[in-house]
Design goal:
Rossmann fold
Length: about 375
């Protein structure tokens, strides 16, 4: 029997990539494979954990900082003895204790990297206004320097690093990780589109008109402010345009204030977090999906929109360029470029034929990113 220990910072019922990824691997572990997950948690335990086909070990998140990390390490150290290999789903809060436990127990460890954690913290705490590429070579100090050093050391000392795009592979290699220890495994999606018609979906969400949907965490680099800013110009193209932003995050209050100050309360809707079934309904109601982001390692949202048959406009950054072929299955535009965004939306809106072409090509594209392929490649690497 092959035994795999997964360490993560978040897990169900938390919402986020690592939580979903860990659940996916756990639920799809078959045959003589056994999975154990160690996670930080807002509760000591959840009754639903007993119904899962794998073990979940939870470390209470409300323990004081330092103490909870120490407890987490001892949990991982204990579980590492019973497992053959460790997969850590981040390089700092889960990766640092997992690496130490792996070395003490003489176990192999792999780390999955979906972004630069130090950069995200620096931007969120307003310690940096740089985009991720420029941040790589910029001087760092204090806490941000420590975070950057920690994640690089964990990746350098791990037996392998898994990334979801060639773009992120380039970032990790720049940290000094040898190319032969970096493995690109594209994320898979199993998104189920809504069976509602466009009009039925619009009635269900209570928003009429030509709907532009954007999804993501409400953080500075996602570019939601620019989408709100260009709405007056878009309304000159069509008074029926409606912008729907799905997500939550530190910029939510700023965005809501911006909408109110611009008098766009009936034109822009910031609807908060939604589950997968709810997102499927919003996508069924949409005429187009727009992702104006300054950074994307590999966007699940683009693949889900493609799976729902929604034409895509996205910024030409990061992993987006590996999924979207300009003019075939979507439009790529410059990040935060007001003119390009408006013109791309205008062109998409004015041509039903173009929207249909992009939707069809998008469905063909997303078929390449099946969940079974991702699971198979991941377990093959861990058990190889």
């Amino acid at each position: 029997m092959k035994k795999i220990l997964i360490t993560t910072g978040i897990f169900y019922p938390d919402i986020g990539g690592p939580a979903s990824y860990a659940m996916t691997l756990g639920r799809n572990s078959t045959g003589d494979r056994k999975i154990t997950i160690v996670t930080y948690s807002s509760k000591f335990n959840y009754p639903s954990d007993k119904e899962l086909p794998f073990r979940v070990v939870r470390v209470w998140r409300k323990w004081p900082k330092g103490l909870r990390h120490l407890i987490y390490f001892f949990r991982v150290f204990s579980e590492a003895k019973k497992n053959d290999v460790i997969l850590s789903l981040n390089a700092v809060s889960a990766g640092v204790p997992a690496l130490r436990a792996a070395r003490m127990r003489k176990k192999k460890i792999y780390v999955k990297i979906v972004g630069d954690y130090a950069w995200e913290i620096a931007v969120n705490k307003k310690k940096s206004s740089l985009l991720i590429n420029d941040f790589q070579d910029a001087a760092k100090k204090g806490f941000i320097k420590t975070l950057s050093k920690l994640q690089r050391q964990v990746c350098l000392k791990a037996d392998g690093v898994i990334v979801p795009s060639q773009y992120l592979a380039g970032i990790v290699k720049k940290w000094g990780v040898p190319p032969d220890r970096v493995r690109v495994i594209y994320n898979g999606v199993d998104f189920k589109e809504s069976e509602l018609s466009k009009e039925e979906a619009r009635k269900k969400i209570g928003i009429p008109g030509n709907i532009i949907v954007s999804i993501g965490r409400l953080v500075p680099w996602k570019g939601f402010k620019m989408l709100v800013k260009i709405m007056p110009e878009l309304l000159k193209i069509s008074q029926f345009f409606r912008l729907v932003i799905i997500g939550d995050g530190p910029e939510k209050k700023q965005l809501e204030a911006m909408v109110k100050n611009m008098g766009l309360e009936k034109k822009v809707y910031i609807v908060g977090k939604k589950n997968r079934d709810e997102i499927a309904v919003y996508l069924a109601a949409a005429d187009m999906f727009v992702l104006n982001s300054g950074y994307e390692g590999f966007s699940h949202q683009i693949l889900e929109a493609m799976a729902a048959g929604v034409p895509i406009i996205a910024s030409a950054v990061g992993g987006n360029k590996e999924v979207i072929e300009q003019g075939r299955n979507g439009f790529l535009v410059k990040y935060n470029d007001e003119f390009n965004l408006i013109e791309a939306i205008r062109g998409m809106h004015q041509s039903l034929e173009l929207r249909d072409e992009f939707a069809a090509a998008g469905r063909e594209t997303v078929a390449k990113y099946g969940l079974e392929r991702m699971i198979s490649q991941t377990f093959k690497l861990l058990e190889g």
